[in-house]
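Sample A.
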Amino acid sequence: MNSFLDLIKQKDVRQFASKPLASLGYVNFAKSLFLASRESAYDKKVLPRFLMQALFQGLGDRKAVVTESGVLSFSELETRAVKLANGFYKQGVIENDRVAVLLDNEQAWFETMLACMLTGVKMPMLSTHLNQVELKNCINACAPKVLVFSHRLIDDIKQIEKELTSVELFVCASDAMASEPYTSLEAMIGSAEYKLPPGGFGVAQMPFSGGSSGVPKFIQQKDGQSALNQRMKGVTKRDLRVLKQRFVFGLTSLGLGDIKDNIVSLIPGPLYHSGVQAAVAPLYLGGTVVVMKKFDAESFLQTIEKERVNFTFVAPTMLERILKLPEETKRKYDLSSMKVIVCAAAPCPDYVKVNINGLFREQGASVSVFTEYYGSSEALMISILRPRDYEEKPERYKSVGKAIVSETRIYNHEKKSWCAVGEIGNVLIRNPRIYQVQAGNSDDINASFFEVDGVYWYDDGCIGYLDEDNFLYLTSRSKDMIISGGVNVFPTEIENVIKQHADVMDVAVIKVGDVDLGEVPGALIQMVDGKAIDESELITFCKEKGLYGFKLPKHIRIIDKLPKNDAGKIRKSELEKEFHYLSQPKSAGNVPNAIGEGVD
């Protein structure tokens, strides 16, 4: 894909490009463009924000946001967002300032997001599950002028407010809970004028990383020059143009253009997560977003039937929970409206992809619904797996898709050489985003860049290989890989086998120190409610599924619940600390919750 002409030749790009006009309405778009041109005095820099304002008003009573508390139409959302933007402006918030949100999945999130978007204000998105120390550090890292928070978190804010060095205004999302020195979102909207204040326009959301390795990192994008210019070494203007075109192609390949009707997007995950913004995106195209307060497997299916959902974004763990539902529960719901399920946040096991497609087909879906992309908060998208890919070659279910979004190669750091097709090594990538991104409250991200053949590449911490068609297969994260007796053991392979047992809800395989072998795999298992498992049964099951020798878990423990962040990633560093005793010689005092040891 070396030119703009190559880009527009792609069917996905053409379909995606036509979607906004079809969804927003041709007459509405033409009228809105006329009004926006007049309001902006034909200034191209500010025209987009007046255009979005006019488009949303033109959609009138069409559903924009559906939450547990009610329905917000496009005209209501636009009116409230413009008044809120004016309220922020009266408090001194101007373009490029930051309004951080510490919000649950609620209406206030969308109102704040649109208010920021229409004025060029940035909106850092904070996890609602951090402890007070983590929350204080994350807020100070993103340095907002305003903090908008859910009412249930008011006690946490009171405890840390004096240590929040940049925050000048605290805004509570509930009128009932707001009292001095706080104000409420309703009070700001109610007292503000309906007039779009001066400002810019652009995507407001600023994510933190998933935090699977500790406290979330604040991700911000900076100018690609100056301090970050070293990353651009060896990158020509043509290289950068091609990388940008690949990136655009990836963003248009999520299947939105395939949906003929108005998009109805279900949001089951936390709105502060970067990946969930894929499910927010249909709102900008005139689609309806249906927001779950918290994910529940059966409620997910029930909502699809009730709201006629045709698009959603999920983490693999959500799909696993759905497949673990009783058969009679899974068969209760009409899922015929669903067209696209985008899965990301962690690699999804191939059997989950196959079985989810099977379930939705059996419940009425007319197409294979599963789409996957692989990426990160730092790099965004790297590869994408589309239905036509695995329908052409079913073995591609095992991949995370074709590496068409970011330039991707496999490198052997020890040999200092590129890997051949099918050879396992470290995944290195290049794209426009990674040359500019910076983590604001962690070690410099530059440490993850490596110079190869005069060009800087980003090592995203994963191990895998590329096939002859440039499909990417991940085997592990480099920090999770277990070296047992000199043999590389990949925890993901063991986890994907154990999770197929009907009585297992989830599993984490961690590295455990061993006197003889250096490291061995330990399996920490969360059972389906009311179920139990016998060690010999589990080991037999693993052998029947193809595990052997070093790949069989040496230690097995049953735990009540695996610690996960809201992106569905298991916090393995916490587990390795908690279960460090497994590396000690067995004694009566250091084997709690054991159901036995694995076989040699």
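Sample B, a different protein:
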Amino acid sequence: MNKKILVIIVMMLAFMLSTPYVLSATQIKNYNSGDKIPIVENEKGYSTSDLPGDTRTDVTIQILPFNPPITISQYGGNYQYSIEALNNESTSVSFNIWTMYTLPNGSSYGPVFGPVDVQLPDKWSAYREDLSDYVTADMPGGNYTYIANVGIYPDTIWNSDSFTFNKLPSSGGWYLQNPGNDETLEGISFSDSENGWAVGYNTIIHTTDGGDTWSEQDDGIYYNQGYHAVDFINSQTGWVAGSLIIKTIDGGNTWTQQYDPSSYGINSIQFVDANNGWAVGGEIDTYNQIYNRVIIHTSDGGNTWSTQLYESGYYYYDYIEPLYDICMLDTSNGWAVGAYGAVFHTDDGGSNWIEQRLGEYSDLFGVTFIDLNNGFAVGEEGTMIYTTDGGNTWSNYTLGFYDNLNSIIFTDANNGWIAGGGYYPYHGTILHTNDGGSTWDFQDTGTGDFEYQLNDIDFVNNNMGWTAGSTWYPFEGVILHTENGGGSSVQPILSYTPTSIDFGDMYGSQSNTSTINIWNSGTGVLNYYFYPEAAKTWITIDPDEGFSSGETDILTVTIDTGGLQPGQYVNNITLISNAGTAIIPIYVTILQANPILSYSPHFYDFGEVPQYQLVTTNLSIWNSGTGVLYYWIDDSGTFCVVEPWSGHSDSGQVNNHTVMCFTSGLSPGPHQCNLTIYGPIGNTEIFTVYVYVTSTGFNNPPNDPYDPLPGNGTTKGETDPVLSVLVSDPDLEMMTVSFYDAADDSLIGTDLNVMSGTRAYTIWSDLSINSTYDWYAVAHDQEASVQSDTYSFTIGEQTNEIISMEMPLNIGFNLIGWYHGYNTTASSLYENISGCLSIVKWDPVAQDYWLYLPGFPAFDFVINPGMGLFVEVDEQSVWHGEG
């Protein structure tokens, strides 16, 4: 770490710990963050002599946008920026930070952010680098200036800084309103152009200014409620329905519970006057597969409710599921719709409900009638039906797309709207007719690729309308508003190229890619997806859904021929959009493969290699036939290791493998190992490795062990001390080091396979406090032994040292150190490191690396305290020092 940065961090922590009151009021907040400003020392190095001579307080501000220049789409969007205030004075200063807009017409708006109270010591700065502001779709198009001020809000500005951004003008008549809640909205109702309510799970929100601002209303019920529908007949009187029915007569300031359905839920409610109202719903009992549907009625404003229709039955046999919407033209005539395309009609206020339509049809979610004869119902996957004879007969209206249509409303005989949305990708849809439903056109929702769906829609006249829904995860409420009937119609056009893809000749177990370009050559927003069940397992499309406002989306088509037998294949991929459906055929021909295993060299002779050495060579393997060659190399039971030990090769593709030969444990003389390369059935080859291991000749005994731990004559603070000596051997041989109690020559412990130039370790357990102990070590190289001097130490008062650590390990090789006061092994360390592939240490005597690979005990080695190691991992993890 840079020393200057380290000093700054230390000073910062010291300051924050010693004087927390300076920062207690220093917070910068926005809608997505509210933590305290980080404080760092001013790196610009101002001193008192640097301050200007005027009398103005010398505090400056800097605001920097991310990724300029910034252009906000017509559908709105956000921009990010950082902000920093610097106190150049020689004393602590208190001040405000705030931001303002200069709008395209030259007027000022704000504050957008702040004012924030800040107190800074001299030569320190306050900064935030994660700030973000959202520009809504209804903001006028043009150039904006975003200005940051520092001073005393609002009139005294000491310093300011700014940047500009451009907002493209909106072409649609709908724009987002902020409902200010984090729950799904399922119903919306306006009594006039100013007063409206929206409801959802445990949520009732209210506006008195046409939706510019919304506030929550308390239903007075102290447990969660699922509200699905709302209906107001004026600005004071309304009903909300779901798991309960509640009523207000004071605009929602207070609510009274009127009805608890208990055995079912209410999906829609409608009042034609202050007394007469109807509600529909039902229950889905998935455990018993018993469902019901219900219609209830009140004639006294909801004080009492009576059941007009109740039916229950089995899901698979009776086509009975809940009703979802109701439309009453007056106190006598009405229609209700629901699951399986059910339509019920009454002409006597509900005394009798006649089934007009039922069967294996798509679910219907919304219904409306213009008069006693002409009506429409909408539902799942683009379903629309209509009638011109009061529902005696119904006809299908083909829209040509598959979005769910959730709500429909007409304001007169000609003008109507539908709200809904689709799942691939998650998007909202609004349709409009101005000819009584003969034709329907899309309206621009003004939201671009914002992911949400619309559940309900309401208009108070031909111009003023609102629709409510929710975003995709996390689920939050969404409200759109129009003041001009939704603006002009738009017509997206699905355009794409190529119209088919032919991957030509391929072999099994191969992959290849191509691309599909998709764009909207019309107006508005095109949303599209590839039907999930259409693609077979050997084709994937990424991404498989998207939006286009005219830009071209490039999708990657990947074909994987694994498992395909020789022959010709075609897959007709279905591309579905709100502008129609297209079929894109994908072709491939699978040829008979004949992979042939080839390799070079066929053998390798390392020649003379001393004991305890690691030598390597290269083995090349390729496919000299057709198709894909899969192979693996068996090096078990040999003194060689191959890395990697398996692979695959397309025709002509050469793969290189490293063959490592370890002479540790091999006696002097010639050695041979055969590595078996397994390819296709009947295609097996042998790669032979030769090595002649040489001895160092006349055996030199080890050098005397030295450099004892604990140091001679020292005092230790624990009763189980680690004993250690440094050992070496002129012939670089492995040694066995034994530790003895000098008092009676009894064995304390033994360290095996100790490399020359490293330390040997053991633990002397259960010693007594305030006692002195003598010991010595003996090093043996299998032929000769040498003894160290006798060393002594004293056990003093016991201390406990707690060592903890967290070391992040990145993919690849990482340098770590063994800090404990005892030995471990490479195999033990491997078991305690997630994703470990290998462990390597440097032998300073042999001037070479020692490699441990899992599964090869012969390559294990001892790790001594203080030793540095390279650890190879294939995943990011954290090592806590275990081993």
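Observation for Sample B: Confidence is low (pLDDT under 50) at residues 1-55, 799-804.
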